[in-house]
Amino acid sequence: MTNQWKVVEPYHGLHDAQLDKVFGVVLSLAAEVWVTKDRLHLIEAALAEKGIVLGDRIDELARNHQRIPELERERDAFMERVLCAVSMRLKT
To answer: Does residue 1 carry a pLDDT above 60?
Structure first.
């Protein structure tokens, strides 16, 4: 999966710089959650069409401690994208 995202202009609708930053973070999180939910729905639908049920396997993978470093890297990249809304405003 590619990480395609774009930085939008800072939001100034709340007339308070700090609240605008927080709202920007909320919007970034909402966008990330929506993309994830949308893709998950599509994956589940595609698998169901093929008669593939992976619930047990997903549970096994979730408990696999060897995946922790990879998940931590992905989490850190996610947080960097989310916090971009704040850091972009701090640079201005």
So the answer is: no
